[in-house]
Design brief:
By secondary structure, this protein is of the alpha+beta class. It is built from 9 helices and 7 strands, in the order ααααβααββαββααββ. It has a domain of about 150 residues: Histidine kinase-like ATPase, C-terminal domain (Heat Shock Protein 90), CATH 3.30.565.10. Strand 4 and strand 5 form a beta hairpin. Helix 3 packs antiparallel against helix 4. The longest helix is centred in the first third of the chain and has 99 residues. About 10% of the residues have low confidence. Keywords: ATP-binding, Kinase, Membrane, Nucleotide-binding, Transferase, Transmembrane, Transmembrane helix, Two-component regulatory system. Pfam families: HATPase_c.
Length: about 350
């Protein structure tokens, strides 16, 4: 291959040096031969002067085809690589956009599923709330019906016969009316107290009390009701026993237990007892009444240990209050059969 160094060597050999005679031989003879040599010599010098700037190819030189073919191949390869690179970039961009859309769709599906679950939960809670409301209304009406019926019958009888009845008869009638109105009053007060405890922001008010004082207040409150049923109330509570509790809640629980014992007993005895058991106090309310069956006893205990209503169990609003208030006091309620055949209810309360 003809390099730049080769061209310089050739030019030095055939170019005359300044101030020196050319060493090239001349053909002596006629002038035509000498002129031809000079002409070729001049052409060689011109070619050498043009060689450092590159080769000068003729249009009919076959090297042009190779050069053009090489240029076309390089340009085509570069163009194809450029197209491939661009396609790869577009493909990567599309894949990235597709992944983003898939993630967005998955997030949307998750949100829709979450909203659907929340809607389902809200629907179930609403259905449960409606069921509880209906049950609460039916229990309330059932508990109000009895004292209202007695109140209506006694006031109607009093309206017709108050002029001719003796003072003793009127006294007994007025006592029954007083008891009926008292039951209605207690029921409405307890209902309002129970409604307030359904609020999660409700806070119990713990304070130390003598247990006998609370029980004595109930004795005074139920003295007339006990006499009406012919029952005797016996208190077996230590005089110095103290309990740290919410007085309103505890008194409401004991009042309902005492009321149930008095209703289910005629000419008998109702006892309220209390004893210390480690760091707890066990208060029992027992009666000598008709008692309840073992199956119903089991269902009632399941009701007090569960957080929802027991299907088929005809509970009263008083039972609802006892269960909810006992939970607020961290207390437990257990129903048993007493030794006298009646019912014994144990209320275990923290000191």
């Amino acid at each position: 291959m003809r390099t730049k160094k080769w061209r310089e060597t050739v030019c030095k050999q055939i170019s005359p040096l300044p101030f020196r005679m050319s060493s090239l031989p001349f053909i002596h003879g006629n002038g035509m031969a000498s002129a031809g040599v000079k002409s070729r010599f001049t052409q060689s010098i011109e070619k050498c002067r043009r060689l450092p700037y590159g080769f000068i190819l003729g249009w009919n030189d076959p090297l042009w085809v190779s050069v053009l073919l090489l240029v076309v191949i390089v340009a085509t390869g570069w163009f194809l690589l450029r197209i491939r690179y661009r396609n790869q970039q577009q493909h990567l961009k599309q894949e990235h956009e597709t992944k983003i859309r898939i993630l967005q769709q998955q997030e949307l599906i998750s949100e829709l599923q979450l909203h659907n679950d929340q809607l389902k939960t809200s629907r179930e809670n609403l259905s449960l709330s409606i069921t509880e409301k209906d049950r609460f209304i039916s229990i309330l009406i059932h508990d109000l019906r009895s004292p209202l019926r007695y109140l209506y019958k006694n006031t109607a009888y009093l309206f017709r016969n108050w002029k001719q009845d003796s003072p003793a008869e009127l006294d007994g009638l007025i006592t029954e009316i007083n008891n009926s109105t008292k039951q209605i009053h207690f029921l409405t007060e307890e209902m309002m107290q129970w409604i307030s405890t359904q609020d999660h922001a409700y806070g119990i008010r713990l304070k130390e009390y003598f247990l006998l004082e609370i029980v004595t207040e109930l004795e005074e409150l139920y003295k007339e009701n006990m006499l009406q049923h012919g029952n005797a109330l016996q208190l077996e509570v230590p005089s110095r026993m103290k309990i740290k509790t919410d007085k309103v809640l505890l008194k409401t629980i004991l009042r309902n237990l005492l009321d149930n014992a008095n209703k289910n007993t005629d000419d008998g005895v109702v006892r309220i007892q209390a004893r210390q058991a480690y760091e707890k106090i066990v208060v029992t309310v027992s009666d000598t009444g008709v008692g309840i069956s073992p199956r119903l006893l089991q269902d009632i205990n399941r009701y007090f240990s569960a957080s929802e209503a027991m299907p088929g169990l005809n509970t009263q609003f008083g039972h609802e209050i006892i269960r909810d208030f006992a939970r607020l006091l961290n207390a437990t309620v257990v129903y048993e059969t007493s030794e006298d055949g009646g019912v014994l209810v144990s209320l275990t309360v923290p000191c």
